[in-house]
Prior knowledge:
Bound molecules: nicotinamide-adenine-dinucleotide
Number of helices: 16
Structural class: alpha/beta
CATH architecture of the largest domain: 3-Layer(aba) Sandwich
Strand order of the largest sheet: 3-2-1-4-7-8-9-10
Strand content: 5-15%
CATH topology of the largest domain: Rossmann fold
Largest sheet: 8 strands, mixed
Amino acid sequence: MRAVVVALGKIGLPIAVHIARAGHDVVGCDIDPRVRDAVAAGRAPFPGEAHLDDYLTEVVDAGRLTVSGDTTAAVAAGADLVIVVPPLIVDREARPDWRVMDAALTDVGRGLQAGTVVSVETTLPTGSTRSRVAPMLADLSGLRSEADFFTVHSPERVFSGRIFADLETYPKLVGGLTDAGEARAVELYRTFIRQAEVWGMGSAEAAELAKLAETTYRDINIAFANELARHADAIGVDVDRVIDASNSQPFSHIHRPGIAVGGHCIPVYPRFYLAGDPDARVPAAARASNLEMPSYAVDLLRDLLGGSLDGARVHVLGAAYRGGVKETAFSGVFDVFDALRDRGATPLVSDPLYTDDELRALGLEPFDGHPVDGVIVQADHAEYRDLAAEALDGARAVVDGRGVVDVDALRAAGVAVKRIGRP
Ligand SMILES: NC(=O)c1ccc[n+]([C@@H]2O[C@H](COP(=O)([O-])OP(=O)(O)OC[C@H]3O[C@@H](n4cnc5c(N)ncnc54)[C@H](O)[C@@H]3O)[C@@H](O)[C@H]2O)c1
């Protein structure tokens, strides 16, 4: 098989390498020359993906993976399968901005040849493959959709850092616009997904919705954990004990509460789901509930500090949306920052992964090293697990939004500590 993978990002590059390792010829296309140069030299352009360096060197040395900055030419040279996986950018309300995706599809459409299957792996709102992707490709190529070429959706469902393992663990979902298109795509995917199953979904919409459903489920589950935690706070019960106990029988899988739900996926895909099903009440309520958590955490600190944050200096620990990851997409830090300001406090942020200039560029005020009144733990960076009272710059109160700090040690040193959902 000859395959073209468009966009060699954190998801696209491992897929391109995985296909090449199965013995196929792969051309990886990217608009960024730094990415192309690194890949052509057999070097991963980003850190943290297990096995990527070794596998990349192997397939580049064997001539199985080559790179190109000209997607149209790579596709025009003839391909059995074109995988398109650039990011779908969203605004603060998680509404899609299609420009990056459309640019990639335009390049593919201009080079498209009869007999090719185009598979979009980027997570999409339901219906996009049929109503947006396929018509664009047909218009640009002059070919007939589902007669001369096929379009399918195959959502990536992997976790950055362990993509090669995930690709051979979970079923690969493939949904087409016709039975013939889906069958051809399933056949092609089975040539390189060899241990995991490849599931034909019956339609592109079913494949799109499956990805939105699994991520929306997590948002709803976390929202329930958060509401349980708030109720536990109100009645003086430890929510961890409650969740552990509930999950000790096999039908309960309650997630953990926390100060915020961040990242590219979980805060975003429920909005894609709701765009297609605007009357759905549970995902909308879950989203609203999760969005209240930063404010809730700030109010816990206000209570610890005697009922007012007016004039207080508060150190927010962690800008990243989760521990150990340099990523602030939809991070809770922004809402914590705003909620502190709304209550008259001065929020000051630090993060072991970000410089002061990087924090300023994000619209945050870096911590200045002077004494503070309170601390809020926003990200579960490993560095915060052994936070000592002496490192709190005089803070009298800590709200631990992630349940990571050593509560006993801080309390023994006279610091008031509140964890969400724990008395
Ligand atoms: N499961 C996960 O953990 C996870 C994490 C992040 C993203 N994703 C998914 O993967 C998709 C892709 O995100 P990513 O993290 O791989 O992106 P990324 O930001 O790592 O990389 C995107 C790449 O696309 C390239 N690019 C942009 N426009 C292009 C074009 N027109 N032609 C060719 N290349 C182009 C960029 O140069 C860049 O190298 C997301 O939309 C999302 O669906 C999943």
